[in-house]
Amino acid sequence: MLKRLKIYWIVWQTTAKYALAELLVSRWSSLIFFVGKGARFAMTLLFLLLLKQSLAGIGGYTTDQVVVFFLTYQLTDNITQMFFRGVYTFSWEVRSGELDFYLSKPLNPLFRILTGKPDFIDASFFIPTTIFSIWLISTLHLHITSVSLITYFFLLMNTFLIAAAFHIFVICIGILTTEVDNVIMLYRDATALSRFPIDVYREPLRTILFFIVPVGLMNTLPAQFLLNLKPTTTVLLSFAIGGGFFLLSLWTWRLSLRKYTSAGG
Known about the structure:
By secondary structure, the protein is mostly helical. The protein contains 12 helices and 2 strands, in the order H-H-E-E-H-H-H-H-H-H-H-H-H-H.
């Protein structure tokens, strides 16, 4: 088992080196992209701070609590893009026949597709935004305990499991249609709804975002437990839904491979 994990680690290191080399070749465009991400993050925070000055709360939540929901979304979105950026170029791998190469190797093709192009721009963006987020939370009027903090990070594991499942579904659609751009943007739009507490939306959208397209479990639920608020659902049910969603994505992956005819048709 350890030997197998070591092989995966070596493969990931190798692909990460190539991704970093590609980034350094186009460093000016990468710098512009980094600045753009920073400006977007700053503008959203400015919006929240202005909202805090004009409103006492949103949907039963204080503006301080809403800031935590946004920062949770920012954290999870940043990390998933760091590791799953390879999905964004998957349609080219299908059309070019690169997927045939992945399938012929004694390495799980899902691992190669999902993590094959780690994003170092998001990695470099992650460090300063995390430091700033910790400082910002320390200035807010919140009730956070050690138990709630542990539960928060525990639930983030389920968040990344659900995020992996979403990206696997995108890969499956890419195999069947050779198109992922619009689908991955649809996923990004859906997760963007959880920048704010899902509770602020009306039914049936609220139920859909919690239990059918579970972006609410990704961001809203961890933030609720961190803030010691009444959670929408339990931790066990959250993991049950997350685990079931992930298993469904694996089943869909196997089904899509049966429909794959390779680059040669």
